[in-house]
Structure formats: C-alpha cells, structure tokens
Structure to design on (869 residues):
C-alpha cells in the first residue's frame, strides 16, 4: 500500500497539471479563510454573480490568448504581438460599425447613436473581417519566424510596436464609441453565465480538438523538442510554425473582439496592453517550457490563466489598491520561476518517497 | 592485504532502481592506483549508471563508496571533482567558442592583483598542461576549430587541472576518433597510469580493451559478472561473459546473404546519375535494385553520409539527376522521400534521430504520421499496437511504450529510431552507422534485420565504419574516399581489396 502511495504521488507530481492546479487550490483555500464571502454566488435576474464568476469573466481573454500562445511557445518561440493584434482587431471592428469617424459621409450620422441596432457593415462581417485580419497578422509573424529565420522575440516585436500604430491609423487616432447592443453582447451578455466565458470554452475545445485529434499537436511538440529530428522524419517544420503563429493571431483576434465589446470603445492605446505578458505567464504557469518548447498542455495554460486572474481578484477583494496589483504579479513571476526549477520539482517528488521511507522505518 | 592498500576506489553492494528498471543490483567495483580498468557490457548493462553514481550525478539506493579507504558520500559532480574523481564524457562538454586555454582553465584563471585575468599566464599554463599530454597546439584559438580528438584532449587536461584527479573516467572516448588519434589517446592514458592515476575506460571496442587495459569488469543486466585481469581472459570468453551466451548468429549470416542474393530484381529501383553537390560530394553514379543491400565503406568524412543525405533529400543536389521507378525526382525533401518510399536512419542519433521528450510510442509513429499528414491522425489504439509490435519485433527493452525515449539506453534508442522507419514501410532503407555505440548483441540483430528486409524485396544502403559489418551484410560494396565514389565491388570480395580501395592507390 505504501508502495502504491509513493507511485501515485510520483505520477501525480510528474503530471504537468500538478503545479498549476496545486497553486490554484492554494490561493482559493487562502481566500476561503482570509476573505469572508469570497465564494458566495448569487442569482440576480437570471445572471450569476460573485467573485468566482468575476474570475472566469475577467480571465477569459487571457485564457483565449493563452491557447494560441501555448502552441507558439511549444514550437520554441514566443509571440509578443498579441496585445497589438487585439488593438488592430478592435479598431477594425469599430470602424466597420461606425465609419463616420474616418471621414465617410453618411446620410444620418446620428443614427449610430440613436439606434442601438444600427451598424454600417453587417454584424457577421464586423466579426469575421477583424478575425481574418488578426489571423493574417499571426501568419505574418509566422512567415518572419519560419521562413525568415528571425528570432521569434525580434520578429514579433516588429508587430508589437507597429501594430498599435496601425490600429491608430485605422481610426484616425480617435476612440470610437460603440452603441450597437448586439455587438456589445459578446463582451457583456449573459446566458446564465457571461457570454465571453462560453467563447473561451469554445476556443479551448477547438484548440484541443485541432491539436490532439489531429497529428498537429505531436508535430508541434516534436518541432519544439528537436527540429532536426523532426525534419529528418518528414515533418514540415515551417508549416507547423506558420500554423502556430497563425492560430495565435486568430486567438488574439477573438480576445480583441471580446475586450472592445466589453468596453464599447476602440482604444488603440490601451486595449490589450501587457496582455502578451499575461498570456505568456499563464502558459508558463501551465507547465509549457518557455524558450525550449516541447511538451505542452492546453489545460495547464487555461488553469494558468485562472491562477493569474484569481490572484488579482483576490488581491482586489482583499483591499489591495489596483495600482499595487502589478507588483503582486511580479511576485507570481518569482514564485513560478522558483517552483518550476528542476531542484524544487525533484524535492516535491522525493517528499513522497521519503515519507514512505519514514513509514517503513517505523 | 597489500592488494586493498592499492585500491583507491571501492564500491560495495551498489543498488539502484529507476522507475521500471532495476539498473544496478548489488554491484561491487574496485579500482586500483595506476591501472587502466576497462568497464564493458551491453547497452543497459549498467555501466553508465555505475559511473553516474561514482561521479555524484545519481545517488545509489544502497551500498557504499570508499575513496582512499574512507567512506564518502558523493552528492554532486562538483563534489566528485573536489574528491579527485573526474569524468570526460562521450560528448565533449566544453564551450566551442571559447579558446582552448579558457576551456581548460575556466574557473581557475590566474589573476593579476586578484582582479583581472592574467591572459599571458593563462595561455602559458594551458600550454603546459597540454604539453604533459603531448599535445602542442595554439591554445588561443577557439576550441571548436579543432578536431574532436583535440577537444577531448582539452577535456582531459581540464579534468586533470580542475580536480587534481586521482581517478579519471573516460566514457566512450574513442567512438569518434581515428585510429591515429586513438593511439595518441592511449599514449596519454598510459602516461597517466604511470603517474599513479586510476583510469576507468568505458568502450564498446573490444580490441581497445585488450590493447590498453590491465583489468576488465563485465556488467550484464545491472549485475556484476566479474572482474578479470585482461591478459588472462580470452576474447571469446569475454564476449560470452558480456552476452551470457556464445555468438553463432553472426556466422550463419553469410549463408543467409548468399541465399538472399538470389532475390535481387534486375530493374533499377533508384538511380543516381552523376548526382552531386559542390563542397559536399563529387558527382557519383549509383544504381539500386529491389532486394539488394549495398554497403558504403570508407573512412569518417569520406562522403558516405553526404551520399545518404542527397538520396534522402536532406540536401538538394546541384548536379546530375535522381530517378526512382524510372521517374525523375524533383522534390528533394525528407517529406518527399518518405512519400517515394525512402527512409534514412541518420548518423547522429541524438541530434537527428530521437525526439527526447516524446514517448517511445510517439517516436515510433512519427515518420509514418508525417507521411499521412496533419489530419489523418493514427488513432491512439493503433499507435499502441504499432509501438508494441516493434518493441516486440526488435526486442526493445522499455517498461512501457509510454516511457520517454531519453530514458532508454543508446542501443534501445537506436532500435526505436529503426522502428520509426520500419513503421513507415519504406522500399529503400538507408542506415547511416546504425551500429555505432551499441552492443554486440544488438549489432547482430540489426545486421540480421537488414538481410531479412532484403529478402522481403526491400532495398537497403548500409553505411558503417566497421568493415566486417559491411562485408557481412552487403551484396555489393561501394567504396568512398575524399568525398567521391572510388569503386564498387560485388560478388565475393576480399577485405584486403576493400581496405586498399579505402586507403587509395598509393598503398
């Protein structure tokens, strides 16, 4: 029985999900004792409210970004441009709803403000076109990295910097306010739970099916671990990288739509600011190795995004001022770096076997 | 006993388990001052594990280590060095872009006023140390600009400097050295021995065991078989001890080969016509038939690997043409070759073969899956069936198909890579040094496999530095020298003729 305990402990601690799940549980347990009523959830007018719901809502853009980022990091790269891509998406979407701002002459400009259903381009196009553009942005990164052989960090830095400029150009550097209620539903709507949460779950399931029900997932891992062996095995490394960056752009597009819809504004300067760092952090917490790539876990990244958001929400509920929360994030980074060091991992693994040895000695 | 006074290292009752493997079982090992002690055994016999325990990389579950009569606990490689136990690994672990001198003395640089590095002194010291090993080179050049042999000498020099070594462990030091370089290494080993240093020599080359070692310790399946004075142990007896059985399998093979040569088809499967790539390989002409094994013989760097890389599409040729089944080949990529039914088991297993963090199962299906593309995924159940089939067929020793390939021994990793290509079901299998660094038993298995593939009507190119292997398996032998094809032999050939062709007309 002791042997089986040690074996189960070993298997548990070696799983990629062990650390992120343990971290999430630890934070929640701390919340349970420190913040009264943290877990209470109320039903008001058919909507669920509560801290836990807030975590899921505010965490969903990061979760969506983290899906794409996971694949990019697994190939051994990184994408710094997702925040900028979000800004571009939001600008495009807003201009398509209300193009008066860019000098288009319309018969009744007031209609945009007075009619909550009016939009210049049809709503499906307002959603599809920005996503296509976001995907193209991602593919651009992929071309630079895979075919241009540019360091991922440098290659995506180009769009990270240029992207916000492009977003400003699209809207003539003006913040467009959106009055269309249907569009606002993406980021604000509720179907018992917030609509954006369903989107996040759909992206997660989609990403999982796309990587794990095809051979793409194992190819991505193989390319990340040893691209030469992969090349000799007949895997097209370039196409795989192109796919990963393209998918990452696509995810950034979705996240961009959610955030714009949520704040009903195209704010090229603020939308998606620092989100690339949150996404990278979520992936790293989830156990995918930054820099080396290889084995990845979408579930780990999703939990990683929740760990991040739970930390922030907990701090805010605990009364930490919002301006200080960034400092807390820095602490999370330090904790992650320490926890994921091989030495600590080995120590945790040995805990199981040494407690076993003590038991047998007695 | 005077014998025990001379012992510098005594390891007693060493026991070590890894998940799923009992790597060492109650092994005793002793090392005397001023001896060269060979450590031999098949892959997975436990040689590396024993060394890792002695050097503090791994900790033994049970057993003691005595150094100079005192019981020590070696916690880390650093501590092992402080104790005077130094190791030079198979792959040189130095920094190729630093100078030779920096590599040797890094961490021990002589300084001026305790602040800046005294470069002049650094270089002089490094030169001194290398001189002791009878190597005279420009120590201010980057290490990477020298041959592997010189790099190894630098690694040895470093091992001696850092720790003031009493024990020097050489893990497969000769596997990438030429005969001349090996002789030079042996000279150094004998010199160190005469200075009272105990040298542990791990190798697969039995000739070298007899040439240089005083005693030999044989391990088999994690257990100690015994320690013997090398001079009084007959070679066949040593092989018997390593394998636990006598080898007759290899002798059957030549009959087998003659038998299988009956089945060679007359139509060309693959035809290279003046195919070449400048700065890599001179244009060569080569025809392959179904059911035929063609051996590529030649020294390291003679262009054998370059031929394989062109045929498999790793490199794109800039001269000549390649036809398969009478159709000209235009798509020179590994992916294209896999579609045509060509497989290449590359020379460098670590860099070009294994995907370390993936499981044995995933490594086996990789090429097959790459051939099928992104969206026709092989089902999980089928993946296990394929993996289990090859694990059984090739006798791969792994606890499960889910074990990460990096946890397997070198020979077993090689078998997994072979399985990857067999699973892709190629019509032409190119094997580039498939038997390097693996044990005698596995070597025989691989050679037998090649012949049985030929009998099934498949074609095979067999590249090996070991001439007797090429002779044993090949129906036809192509000799390479200085990056060009020299000549071809078929039918009954004499080893002497081939050696002469390899050496060149001058001899």
């Amino acid at each position: 029985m002791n042997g089986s305990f040690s074996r189960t402990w070993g298997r548990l601690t070696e799983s990629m999900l062990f650390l992120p799940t343990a971290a999430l549980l630890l934070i929640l347990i701390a919340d349970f004792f420190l913040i009264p009523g943290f877990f209470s959830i109320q039903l008001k007018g058919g909507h669920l409210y509560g801290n836990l719901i807030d975590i899921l809502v505010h965490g969903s853009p990061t979760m969506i970004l983290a899906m794409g980022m996971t694949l990019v990091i697994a190939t051994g790269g990184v994408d710094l441009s997702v925040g900028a891509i979000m800004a571009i998406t939001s600008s495009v979407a807003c201009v398509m709803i209300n193009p008066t701002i860019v000098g288009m002459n319309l018969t009744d400009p007031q209609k945009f403000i007075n009619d909550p259903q009016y939009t210049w381009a049809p709503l499906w196009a307002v959603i599809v076109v920005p996503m296509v553009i976001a995907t193209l942005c991602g593919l651009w990164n992929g071309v630079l990295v895979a075919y241009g052989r540019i360091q991922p960090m440098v290659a995506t830095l180009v769009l990270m910097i240029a992207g916000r400029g492009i977003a400003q150009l699209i809207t003539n550097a003006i913040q467009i306010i959106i009055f269309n209620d249907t569009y606002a539903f993406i980021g604000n709507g509720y179907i018992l739970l917030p609509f954006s949460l369903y989107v996040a779950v759909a992206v997660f399931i989609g990403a999982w099916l796309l990587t794990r029900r095809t051979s793409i997932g194992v190819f991505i891992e193989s390319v990340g671990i040893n691209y030469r062996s992969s090349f000799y095995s007949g895997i097209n490394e370039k196409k795989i990288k192109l796919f990963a960056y393209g998918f990452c752009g696509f995810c950034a597009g979705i996240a961009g739509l959610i955030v714009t819809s949520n704040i009903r504004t195209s704010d090229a300067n603020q939308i998606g600011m620092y989100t690339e760092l949150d996404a990278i952090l979520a992936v790293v917490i989830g156990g995918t190795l930054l820099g080396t790539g290889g084995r990845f876990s979408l579930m780990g990244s999703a939990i990683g995004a929740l760990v991040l958001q739970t930390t922030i929400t907990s701090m805010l509920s605990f009364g930490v001022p919002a301006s200080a929360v960034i400092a807390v994030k820095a602490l999370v980074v330090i904790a992650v770096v320490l926890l994921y060091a091989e030495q600590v991992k080995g120590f945790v693994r040995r805990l199981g076997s040494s407690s076993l040895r003590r038991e047998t000695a007695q | 006993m005077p014998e025990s006074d001379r012992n510098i290292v005594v390891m007693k009752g060493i026991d070590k388990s890894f998940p799923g493997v009992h790597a060492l079982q109650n092994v005793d090992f002793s090392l005397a001052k001023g001896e060269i002690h060979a450590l031999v055994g098949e892959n997975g016999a436990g040689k590396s594990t024993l060394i890792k325990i002695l050097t503090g990389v791994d900790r033994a579950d049970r057993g003691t280590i005595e150094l100079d009569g005192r019981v020590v606990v070696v916690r880390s490689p650093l501590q092992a060095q402080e104790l005077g136990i130094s190791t030079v690994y198979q792959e040189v672990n130095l920094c190729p872009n630093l100078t030779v001198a920096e590599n040797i003395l890094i961490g021990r640089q002589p300084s001026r006023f305790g602040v800046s590095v005294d470069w002049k002194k650094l270089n002089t010291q490094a030169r001194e140390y290398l001189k002791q090993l009878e190597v005279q080179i420009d120590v201010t050049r980057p290490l990477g600009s020298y041959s592997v042999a010189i790099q190894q000498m630098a690694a040895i020099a470093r091992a001696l400097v850092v720790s003031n070594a009493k024990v020097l462990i050489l893990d497969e030091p000769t596997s990438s050295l030429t005969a001349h370089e090996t002789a030079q290494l042996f000279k150094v080993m004998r010199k160190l021995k005469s200075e009272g240093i105990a040298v542990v020599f791990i190798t697969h080359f039995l000739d070298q065991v007899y040439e240089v070692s005083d005693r030999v310790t044989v391990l088999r399946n994690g257990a100690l078989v015994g320690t013997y004075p090398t001079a009084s142990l007959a070679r066949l007896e040593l092989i018997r001890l390593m394998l636990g059985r006598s080898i007759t399998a290899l002798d059957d093979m030549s009959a087998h080969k003659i038998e299988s040569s009956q089945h060679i088809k007359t139509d060309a499967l693959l035809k290279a016509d003046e195919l070449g790539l400048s700065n890599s390989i001179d244009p060569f002409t080569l025809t392959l038939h179904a059911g035929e094994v063609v051996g590529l013989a030649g020294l390291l760097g003679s262009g054998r690997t370059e031929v394989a890389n062109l045929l498999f599409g790793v490199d794109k040729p800039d001269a000549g043409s390649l036809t398969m089944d009478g159709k000209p080949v235009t798509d020179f990529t590994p992916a294209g070759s896999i579609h045509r039914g060509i497989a290449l088991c590359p020379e460098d297993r670590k860099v070009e073969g294994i995907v370390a963090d993936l499981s044995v199962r995933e490594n086996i299906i990789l090429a097959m899956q790459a051939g099928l593309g992104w969206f026709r995924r092989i089902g999980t159940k089928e993946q296990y069936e394929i993996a289990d089939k090859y694990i059984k067929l090739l006798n791969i020793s792994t606890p499960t198909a889910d074990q990460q390939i990096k946890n397997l021994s070198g020979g077993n990793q090689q078998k997994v890579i072979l399985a990857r290509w067999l699973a892709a079901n190629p019509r032409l299998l190119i094997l580039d040094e498939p038997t390097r660094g693996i044990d005698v038993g596995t070597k025989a298995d691989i050679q037998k496999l090649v012949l049985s593939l030929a009998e099934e009507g498949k074609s095979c190119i067999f590249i090996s530095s070991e001439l007797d292997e090429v002779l044993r398996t090949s129906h036809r032998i192509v000799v390479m020298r200085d990056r060009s094809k020299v000549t071809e032999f078929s039918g009954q050939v004499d080893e002497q003729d081939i050696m002469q062709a390899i050496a060149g007309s001058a001899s």
Summary: Chain A has one domain: 50-329.
